Amino acid sequence: MTRYADLVERHGTPAYVYDLNRVEAARDDLFAALPEEFELFSAVKANPHPEVIRALRQGGNRACRAEISSTGELDAALSAGFDPGECLYTGPGKTDGELDEAIAKGVRMFSVESLTDLQHIGAVALRLGVVAQALLRINSASASATTSIRMTGAPSQFGIDSETLVEQIPLLRAVEGTEIVGAHFFPLSNARDEDALIGEFQHTIAQAARTFHDIGLDEPRFLDIGGGFSVPYAVPGERPVYGRLREALSQTLDEHFPRWREGFPKVACESGRYLVGDSGTLLAGVVNIKESRGRKFVILDAGINTFGGMSGLGRLLPVAVSPDTAGASPESVESWEKSSLVGPLCTPGDVLGRSVALPPLEAGDVIEIPNAGAYGPTSSLLMFLGRPAPVEIVVRGDEVVSVSRIEHHRTYA
Ligand SMILES: *Cc1c(COP(=O)(O)O)cnc(C)c1O
């Protein structure tokens, strides 16, 4: 039985439990792994729960800024105490309505994905009588490391192709209502290991220096070198601690940007999953168990409507969920039977794992899926098949901070 038995009793399943102590530990560990001059953006999309992002905002002089990509995320960030001036607004499809709202509320820094994107930002800024600061997001022609999600080097809706940037510069510079203050790179997510992460950052920093030189931006004010910090996803394991990163980043920056320590440019990283991944546990109830043609199916009340919805569609992250083994002896874990772990939805895509070793289970049991704090409810198919959203329980150690659930309802015009 789970150590969250009393919470399950009171609030039912499926339920997420997020521990703010662990969010803060991840935040502090990541800041400690970076040079002290660095800024760190928390990618709100990984977990927009208000108390979770508030914990990322609180950290004295080493508090995260917010990387947002919609007015919904902007509202989440503002209500968690972020200043609009601390937000970086990103995304390939910023609408005029969103830009209007964001700029009116005080957001000034935007990651720019194309000339036309910058023109849209400029038009709104001009109308509101302000100047928007643009980081040119660069889609580099080359990259250095292998990764599970690569977002650069190929045709993409993200970023300006590095090979055409120089010729576009006169037009980019001419966009009224904007000033180009630096660049944004986000070449990889979830790096394989620290070497891969360092390799990618070194590549990015060198590329940034070349880019600023090529486009004649002599005094870049801001450089966002992206992320790639990794954490186990819905399987047991420890969040890595990056012991060599700080030194490697400092050295590479010294080489390419001699004044970076004085803030020329200010350098930033971004993370979603690392900051929130290990804070979360998904408690899923076993609804039924059946056998079909020699295979055992464990049917949970949590499927792709609750967790890993994008992978349920066969896209992005392949999920192979596995339960927490913490309470079990190694011998008993060895005898665990392999089963398909599936959700309750009427689609064969509702699979959390095809061959997962599971302890003996029966209907009514609860399994604990660890490291489930990132890309949970809001990146799942919450409304598909009309089940209620999972309960989200925020704790600080043993103390319950809040219990809530997202409700969706239709509003008629
Ligand atoms: C999604 C996203 C992130 C977060 O990625 P993780 O792999 O969760 O760290 C960071 N930056 C940008 C621009 C993103 O789109």
Q: Considering the protein shown, what is the CATH homologous superfamily of the largest domain? A: Alanine racemase
CATH class of the largest domain: Alpha Beta
What ligand molecules are bound, each kind once? pyridoxal-5'-phosphate
Unreliable residue runs: 312-318
Round the mean pLDDT to the nearest integer and report it.
Answer: 91
- Judging from the principal axes of the Cα atoms, what is the shape? globular
Could you tell me the number of beta strands?
Answer: 19
Tell me what the structure shows.
This protein is an alpha/beta fold. It folds into two domains: 5-15 and 278-405, Lyase, Ornithine Decarboxylase, Chain A, domain 1 (Beta Barrel), CATH 2.40.37; 34-271, Alpha-Beta Barrel (TIM Barrel). It is built from twelve helices and 19 strands. The strands form three sheets. Strands 1, 13, 14, 15, 16, 17, 18 and 19 form an eight-stranded mixed beta sheet that branches. The chain has an eight-stranded parallel beta barrel with strand order 2-3-4-5-6-9-11-12, surrounded by four helices. Helix 5 links the parallel strand 4 and strand 5 (109-112). Helix 2 runs parallel beside helix 3 (50-57), helix 5 (96-104) packs across helix 6 (115-127) and helix 8 (194-214) packs parallel to helix 9 (245-256). It is globular and about 65 Å long. The relative contact order is 0.16. Residues 312-318 have low confidence and may be disordered. The chain binds pyridoxal-5'-phosphate (PLP). The site of pyridoxal-5'-phosphate has 16 residues, from strand 10, strand 12 and helix 10.
